[in-house]
């Protein structure tokens, strides 16, 4: 995984992919951050196997809590929050992970989504993850979180990952007694799903710069 300065542009830029990871974990350490990191690692490994250079950018919503509330009141995200939103919307793919409270996404996570422009994630490949205390809450990914991103017209990959407390205690990649996949196996499968979409998406799918064809002042003045 390589971190590349934005100012460096080479002939290999078309093979570079940026993954933005946004999570709403509240603690440090956080099982939500742990799941987000493992999903990012799995995705990056698969993209590298497909021949891409990968940059991973992490946005911790707990660091922007006050700014998110301010943006909800004013309608204008500023400062570090504005830069975090730009990181997410300009990425090639997004991994979004939230803890579940009362069987749905956290208030912090939803508040962040509420301040995004409704067109900001149109067509964006998104991998969903969630953490909670019991496997009984896993369906919240499908009846709560997935519809939220479908409404935003994101390209949500089929595979999502829920991690219950007991999942972290399992050893290695062993299967469950009921034949289901272990957490490491689900993470790897999800990473492959997102990587495949991001790899195929390519640079041409990024939003065009609306000012790219605007002439400079020097051009307007007829200077050399």
UniProtKB/TrEMBL annotation:
This is FMN reductase. The keyword Oxidoreductase applies. PANTHER family: FMN REDUCTASE (NADPH). SUPFAM superfamilies: Flavoproteins. Gene3D superfamilies: 3.40.50.360. Residues 19-167 form the NADPH-dependent FMN reductase-like domain. It comes from Promicromonospora soli. The keyword Oxidoreductase applies. GO terms for molecular function: oxidoreductase activity. InterPro entries: CE1759_FMN_reduct, Flavoprotein-like_sf, FMN_Rdtase-like_dom, NAD(P)H-dep_FMN_reductase. Pfam families: FMN_red. Keywords: Flavoprotein, FMN, Oxidoreductase.
